[in-house]
Automatic annotation (TrEMBL):
<dbReference type="InterPro" id="IPR018753">
    <property type="entry name" value="GapR-like"/>
</dbReference>
<comment type="similarity">
    <text>Belongs to the UPF0335 family.</text>
</comment>
<dbReference type="InterPro" id="IPR046367">
    <property type="entry name" value="GapR-like_DNA-bd"/>
</dbReference>
<feature type="domain" description="GapR-like DNA-binding">
    <location>
        <begin position="7"/>
        <end position="78"/>
    </location>
</feature>
<keyword id="KW-0175">Coiled coil</keyword>
<dbReference type="GO" id="GO:0003677">
    <property type="term" value="F:DNA binding"/>
</dbReference>
<dbReference type="Pfam" id="PF10073">
    <property type="entry name" value="GapR_DNA-bd"/>
</dbReference>
<protein>
    <recommendedName>
        <fullName>UPF0335 protein V473_13930</fullName>
    </recommendedName>
</protein>
<feature type="coiled-coil region">
    <location>
        <begin position="11"/>
        <end position="38"/>
    </location>
</feature>
Length: 80
């Protein structure tokens, strides 16, 4: 009859781990927000910085393809 208790303990431990990780994730998110606020106070544009971070995560080929498509669309709309 120990199996249900073992399963319940295992489930509780997994849930507690998830809760700790969620709390850490929230803390990291708050830290990132603080860095963007610091950058803004220094005169940088956080919106552009977020865009740069997103672009840096991309593979060079994917980024080049996206930029080419963007240029095509801007040109087609007369925005270039």
């Amino acid at each position: 009859m120990t199996e249900p208790n073992v399963a319940a303990d295992q489930l509780r431990l997994l849930i507690e781990r998830i809760e700790r990780l969620e709390e850490e994730k929230k803390g990291i998110g708050d830290d990132i927000k603080d860095v963007y606020l610091e950058a803004k106070a220094t005169g940088y544009d956080p919106k552009i910085m977020r865009q740069i971070v997103r672009l840096r995560k991309m593979q060079p080929h994917d980024r080049q393809e996206m930029e080419a498509i963007l240029q095509t669309y801007l040109s087609a709309l007369g925005m270039e």
